[in-house]
Predict the structure.
Amino acid sequence: MNWNFSWRRNRFKNKPKMEKPRRQWLSFGFEWRRHTRRAALVVLLAGGLAALTWALDRPVRVISMDGSFQRVSPGQIEKAVAPFSQAGFMSADLDGIQRAVEALPWVERARIQRRWPNSLHVTVIEQTAAARWGESGLLNTRGELFVLRRGAVVTGDSELARRASIARLTRLVALDHVALVESQVAQRYLSVQGRMLEAGMRIAALRLDERGAWEMDLDSGVTVRLGRREVDERIDRFIHTASQVISHRLNEITYVDMRYSNGFAIGWRNAAVPAPVPSKHADDTDV
């Protein structure tokens, strides 16, 4: 028997047949239909939302507002909002209106709300000035600087209101500064003013010169020289010690120099008046 031939025949006989790949066109058809239905649903929802927005986007008829309106007038707010009022109730640019209102002098922040069916409501919070800064700037109660355009400091509706506003601004403390130290001067003033008021004194001006030396003027006309070092400690020493010495003779004093290790010097308007406090040698590194 030819075993070689038999083995070859069996080898071809026992070889498994390769299955042909199944056609997937039915599966693809089902997937296509599923995606088509989803896309149609999305288009339908988007169209419904657009139709609802169009139906609700009626013209804005009323612009209401609230605030203290001590520095900003309702007319200014209405003028700032006017370019946006042509849009509909839903399409009005609330962020744009907010930016336009907050760009007005004396406006610290604003909030814009839609009110059904056809009105916009503007809430205005004004800046509260605590001090004058340079020629055209003001400092608010948080130590933040806001600079006003020339002629935009007062916005009252009457001449009497404008005069009263000018008088209030004139009484504010004047802060002087060198470049890039606004925050430092502002924080110094805010930390000192309360203690000075408790001691019965009011700051009229606070200065920081190019050398980094501090001075403050009191509303009595006395200048307090604080120097460059240990400024807070010298302020405390002035409040608790020097102010008690000079309190009854403020009209006779030009300055109080606190740049001494253990004392202070007094500058008298009349040089013949003797100083009640012995003079000390000023710190050489601070004069």
